[in-house]
Automatic annotation (TrEMBL):
<keyword id="KW-0732">Signal</keyword>
<feature type="domain" description="DUF642">
    <location>
        <begin position="1"/>
        <end position="156"/>
    </location>
</feature>
<keyword id="KW-0964">Secreted</keyword>
<dbReference type="InterPro" id="IPR008979">
    <property type="entry name" value="Galactose-bd-like_sf"/>
</dbReference>
<keyword id="KW-0325">Glycoprotein</keyword>
<dbReference type="InterPro" id="IPR052437">
    <property type="entry name" value="Pectin_Meth_Modulator"/>
</dbReference>
<dbReference type="Pfam" id="PF04862">
    <property type="entry name" value="DUF642"/>
</dbReference>
<dbReference type="InterPro" id="IPR006946">
    <property type="entry name" value="DGR2-like_dom"/>
</dbReference>
<protein>
    <recommendedName>
        <fullName>DUF642 domain-containing protein</fullName>
    </recommendedName>
</protein>
<keyword id="KW-0134">Cell wall</keyword>
């Protein structure tokens, strides 16, 4: 996990208004912007009960909200960012995951797991020795609190793929001068 990637280190109550996180550095180890909520498992949103499958806390990214984390990396090395996410509103939602200058779009549309959360991954090549991981909800809905809930953000260094005889190299992972992107949904493994 990234430091506080499970969001169990909570913001000080003086830095919150209800569930809304006030201030850009209120969540330990993360910078926030826009309408970000700190969610506690069992919290209610109207008639819906918000559950967090692991631990007791997560963050919800409302209209045009983001969380970001700065960290060290090895320039030119491949990494994967994984996270779990859940929808809280009826319309299709999406997340932008980026390590500037690259980014990926993760559609949060249909839930394939029994607990209401899906796991997502995005791979990238580190552009420098210090990177900034940004998870952003680009949507602007009438309800500013409408947006995906995020938990369990992790990053792992990937071993470069090796070409071997008789194996289809680069099958559904695209390598090229723009780096490479990998999108995984648990549905692919269940179906």
């Amino acid at each position: 996990l990234l430091p506080n990637g499970d969001f169990e280190e909570r913001p000080k109550s003086s830095l919150m208004r209800g569930t809304e996180v006030m201030g850009h550095d209120s969540i330990p180890h993360w910078e926030t912007g826009g309408f970000v909520e700190y969610i506690t498992s069992g919290q209610r949103q109207g008639d819906m009960l918000l559950l967090v499958p692991e631990g007791g806390h997560a963050v919800r990214l409302g209209n045009n909200a983001y969380i970001k984390h700065k960290m060290g990396a090895v320039k030119g090395q491949s990494y994967s960012i994984t996270l779990t996410a859940s929808r809280t509103c009826a319309q299709a939602e999406q997340l932008y995951v980026s390590v500037p200058p690259g980014h990926g779009i993760l559609p949060i549309q249909t839930v394939y797991s029994s607990n209401g959360w899906d796991s997502y991954a995005w791979a990238f090549v580190a552009p420098s020795d210090e990177i900034e991981v940004i998870i952003h909800n680009p949507d602007s809905e009438d309800d500013k609190a409408c947006g995906p809930i995020i938990d369990r953000v992790a990053m792992k260094q990937l071993a470069p793929p090796r070409a071997r005889r008789g194996i289809c190299f680069n099958n559904s992972i695209h390598l090229g001068h723009f780096g490479w992107v990998l999108y995984i949904s648990l549905y692919n493994f269940i179906a």
